[in-house]
Known about the structure:
By secondary structure, this protein is α+β, with helices and mostly antiparallel strands. It contains four helices and four strands, in the order E-E-H-E-E-H-H-H.
Amino acid sequence: xxxxxxxxxxxxxxxxxxxxxxxxxxxxxxxxxxxxxxxxxxxxxxxxxxxxxxxxxxxxxxxxxxxxxxxxxxxxxxxxxxxxxxxxxxxxxxxxxxxxxxxxxxxxxxxxxxxxxxxxxxxxxxx
Length: 127
């Protein structure tokens, strides 16, 4: 489903280059539960940002269902984030005045799913 092939990501300032990902290759199977562990500064967040399309890699390739993302445009990344991947941030980023169910429903609201289906899918996800 998801494969990283030789992914490199560097952050460059005027006089310094920080290598965040150095030729990372990794495959994730469908329905696989994975934990990404490592010390601070080891590239975990950078790798997750690349996988989530929040940051772009410098070289290598990210394949989604065998399709390269090298030529993805902004709208392709938007569709991927809306329909294929989800994030649970470390600090949760929940909207405090909404219920848990309403917070889960929010992402589906942005994709145009109707209220009844949105509520049902959110409940199933929470169960």
